[in-house]
Amino acid sequence: MKNIKLILTGLLIAFTAISCSEDFLEYEPEGVLSSENVATADNAESLVIAAYAAIANDEMIGPLTHMWVYGSVRSDDSYKGGGGRSDVDVVDRYEQYYLTVPDQGDWMAPRTWTNYYKAISRANFALSVINEIPDEEYEMKTIRQAELHFLRAHSHFMLKRIFKKIPYITEELSQEEIAQTSNDIPNQELWNMIADDFLFAYNNLPQAQDEVGRADRNAAAAYLAKVRLYQAYEQNETHQVVNINEAMLQEVIDYADEVTGSLEPDYANNFLVEYENGPESIWAAQFSINDGTRVGRVSFVTGLNSPHGTGLYGCCGFHLASQNMVNAFKTDANGLPLLDSFNNSDILNNVQEDGTVAVSSGLTVDPRLDHTVGVPGRPFKYRNTVNSQGDMIYNFSWARDPGVYGFFGNMKEQQAPDCSCYVKEGPFVGTSRNVIFIRYADVLLFKAEALIQLNRYEEALPLINEIRSRAANSGQRPVEAGASDIYNVGLYDSFPSKEFAWKALKFERRLEFGMEGPRFFDLVRWGEAAETLNAYLDEEKTKRDFLANAVFTAGRDEYYPIPQREIDFTGGLYVQNPGY
């Protein structure tokens, strides 16, 4: 983590990965560490750093940070990509909503489950140590406890969004009690458990911390707004929204008002390593390079997603924008999104002989297109060349399997190949750029969403327009790199009704966070996943044959199945999600 001391080698050894035969929740290695033999302030500090490391100890096949598999490919934002359907076929099944076959091995969802509970175990072990240290011996005790509550809540929150039914594990539980802890917790009760941990952090952390990367009160307030927003949409046992809790929505507004921050002046700054930990980054996983380790503490979570058909990058052409996603960036004569008709026609799909696409006369788009999607003929990552290494104008040939997945690339998770943040391990690309969990733009739209649902949509108008105004001012980099200027972004004069405001809010979230991962979770939260995704599939399968048999089943596909190995390990204590 940047500006935080390195984890002690001995502690890293103590927390090495356990085998699949062991209980991932019983995570105190015997004979190595115990709360009794490490209960000193110095050791506690190292344990806290180890807990921070754990929330970013993900990989290509067990994501924890970037949700491109679970939140983007599973939505209408993107396709799996890669070398055909059989290439990492588990993600193909996720994209097809074909989850009735139990996951085999330790790839993707089962590994993500394990990795999050490893992170929870680190937080709990650190808490069990710190709780035993006398206050007078550890000046930072309460603050470090609050950080650990925050980290534990974060991991449980991420798990809940993916699996819904999860066991909530705290440091007070003995191993015997852990073994008897069910995942069948009432939905609102489980949300409150997560909120309580964040509330402890909120009440005990300073507004800001000297060391970049540590949780602070500001991040806790933002996360409480996020949790209460999810919790406000009350679901029944089959995941349908049956009530919207107005008291929770007011809490969203109250906590959002506590958050300090600002939008980056240029949207691009959020996705460039030189601007990380800026005013818009409220909470992020920290990575580093050239830190004394072999390849650095870099992120490989999107290591499969680089453009494939160019020597500038490596492998493997995953995570490609859908035609639906590209169409969403169209604007009308007033620079406003086409809320109801954006997908009536396709744009930027007419490939020329030189591997670029023709731009239709009169087409105008939101500039966030060129920050989100690789489009043939338009500069990639705000560059037209990379020194003597080659051309950076995105080309049809950069797509690995255009006959299956089309040719629209992803841009936000990529960096220029001459970036000092960039490293290759074999064909796979890693970077030291942070992965942001909450941006200030999120907080603005959390508040706007709550206001609209409370019928205070006029108050939401300036918040949404603030996001749109920043978008309008974010076209300089692509144009300077050679993109034709087809940008037109306008502000809303008014919201004539709650229904219109609601559409505008949902559309703005999609444009602002396109292919960053929240889209699927937004649709589930709103209770609109089945309707939206089946309509998307009905149209998209006419363009992409691989989606011919895909269908979203309401009451099942909103969440992943609880990994069968966990149900087996607990002797059937864990309850499976409905429909599996």
UniProtKB/TrEMBL annotation:
Residue ranges constituting the RagB/SusD domain according to the UniProt record? 279-580
Record's signal peptide: 1-21
Principal subcellular localization: membrane
Which keywords does the record carry?
Cell outer membrane, Membrane, Signal
- Residues of the SusD-like N-terminal domain: 106-229
Q: Which PROSITE patterns match?
A: PROKAR_LIPOPROTEIN (PS51257)
Compartments reported by the entry: Cell outer membrane
Q: Which family does it belong to?
A: Belongs to the SusD family.
Kindly provide the name given to this protein in its UniProt entry: RagB/SusD family nutrient uptake outer membrane protein
